[in-house]
């Protein structure tokens, strides 16, 4: 909540090859009559350097940034003198940024200013009407080099998949029986290649950010467009009244559609069997609360070091997890483990006496089908990029190819490299500072085709 008695200032530093400091300021207005507050605003207290950008609602008017102002006020004159002393200039074009609710007058009490070195790389414009009496100022700053484009990770759009063609494609690719001399790795590579080829052809991918549940409602879009059009046409008391009416109507429509969408959400999504975490994320998104994602470019801290780039963060996470892992790779220990493993070739099983019966027998197709039925859907894939939805829509030939690879691994003890690899994803702990590396826990995404779950469900294994 803004204070009516004091100037508020906050700052943020954008870390890049040339860091930029953005100072956001709000100075409450002091009326000319019936206002006993004393104005002590002094711009000389603000930080100034070549890479500083000053923006905010200063409630000051001067012809330098307000074309509708014929005579500057005291604070506007004070700011203009300070800008001249430090060698800065306003970025505003002079267009009004405010329409008064009381009088309908248009003015520019909002200011954006910086030094000449930053000004040549900066472009000022007005943003769209967001429902306030102020219009947002949009300031674009060109970097010294082209910034890396943010690329959201693409995901399989299973709801748009052509599962019939996907299944037929897998059946056709795996119909021919493989040679008996193929190893476990070769059998699984053949299977996964067929699935990935069919997936690229018949399952689309996307990386679109999910909008708020009500934002794309046609009635809300029409009301917002009418409000923006009415604001652009404000020039007299009658047009001002039309704008205020359109603004009120847009707020009412948004509130009504939001409530209806929330009731629909409660009666559908919340009544289904789902995880508490998913419901919590949906509610946070609905309320516009802060989510648990780490923003691109948001700095992290490890000891006295500040991590900015994605590569620095990834290396720090890898080092952190390697130091706490119980399976740290050590060549000397690995060689001893391999020697002990080779001795198992001559080991007699106490349960079946190497006859491969009972719990040591090959897995049956019924066991595989049961395991597929029990697999949870809507899970992130492992390094092989194969999801449970793909496995669920396999035909009998493709299931047989997967079963052959699983049984070959069960018999020989050879594990395909895709089953031994994992994608480590750092998840922030609840209510912890996301800038600290220690406040993340690792989640390992493994292949959904691993036979560990089948072994655990088999009695005696």
UniProtKB/TrEMBL annotation:
Protein origin, superkingdom: Eukaryota
GO terms assigned for molecular function: RNA-directed DNA polymerase activity
Oxidoreductase in keyword set: no
Segments forming domain Endonuclease/exonuclease/phosphatase: 20-137
Alphabetical keyword list: Nucleotidyltransferase, RNA-directed DNA polymerase, Transferase
UniProt name for this protein: LINE-1 reverse transcriptase
Species assigned in the record: Amphibalanus amphitrite
Species lineage: Eukaryota, Metazoa, Ecdysozoa, Arthropoda, Crustacea
């Amino acid at each position: 909540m803004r204070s009516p008695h004091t100037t508020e200032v906050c700052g943020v530093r954008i870390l890049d090859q040339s860091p930029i400091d953005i100072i956001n300021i709000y100075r409450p207005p002091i009326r000319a009559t019936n206002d006993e507050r004393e104005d002590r605003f002094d711009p000389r207290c603000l930080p100034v350097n070549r890479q500083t950008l000053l923006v905010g609602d200063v409630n000051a008017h001067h012809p330098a940034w307000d074309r509708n102002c014929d005579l500057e006020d005291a604070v506007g004159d004070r700011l203009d003198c300070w800008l001249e002393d430090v060698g800065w200039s306003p970025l505003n074009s002079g267009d009004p940024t405010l329409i008064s609710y009381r009088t309908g007058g248009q003015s520019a009490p909002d200011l954006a200013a910086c030094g000449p070195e930053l000004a040549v790389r900066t472009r000022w414009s007005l943003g769209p009407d967001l429902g306030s009496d102020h219009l947002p100022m949009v300031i674009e700053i060109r970097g010294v080099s082209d910034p890396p484009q943010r690329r959201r990770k693409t995901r399989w759009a299973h709801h748009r998949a052509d599962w019939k063609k996907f299944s037929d494609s897998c059946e056709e690719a795996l119909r021919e029986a493989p040679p008996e001399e193929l190893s476990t790795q070769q059998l699984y590579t053949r299977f996964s290649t067929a699935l990935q080829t069919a997936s690229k052809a018949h399952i689309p991918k996307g990386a679109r950010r999910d909008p708020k549940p009500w934002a794309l409602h046609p009635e809300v879009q029409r009301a917002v467009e009418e409000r923006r059009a009415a604001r652009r046409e404000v020039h007299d008391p009658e047009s001002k009244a039309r704008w205020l009416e359109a603004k009120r109507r847009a707020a009412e429509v948004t509130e009504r559609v939001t409530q209806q969408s929330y009731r629909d959400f409660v009666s559908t999504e919340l009544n289904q069997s789902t995880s508490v975490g998913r419901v919590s994320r949906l509610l946070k998104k609905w309320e516009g609360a802060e989510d648990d994602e780490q923003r691109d470019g948001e700095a992290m801290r490890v000891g006295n070091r500040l991590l900015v780039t994605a590569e620095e963060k990834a290396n720090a996470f890898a080092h952190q997890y390697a130091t706490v892992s119980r399976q740290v790779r050590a060549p000397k220990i690995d060689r001893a483990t391999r020697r002990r493993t080779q001795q198992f070739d001559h080991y007699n099983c106490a349960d079946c006496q190497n006859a491969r019966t009972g719990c040591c027998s090959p897995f049956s197709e019924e066991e595989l089908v049961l395991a597929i039925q029990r697999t949870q859907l809507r899970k992130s894939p492992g390094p092989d990029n194969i999801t449970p939805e793909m496995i669920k829509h396999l035909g009998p030939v493709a299931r047989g190819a997967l079963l052959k690879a699983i049984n070959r691994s069960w018999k020989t003890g050879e594990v395909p490299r895709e089953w031994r690899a994992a994608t480590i994803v750092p998840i922030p702990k609840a209510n912890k500072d996301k800038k600290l590396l220690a406040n993340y826990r690792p989640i390992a995404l493994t292949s959904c085709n691993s036979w560990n779950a089948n072994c655990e469900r088999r009695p005696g294994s």
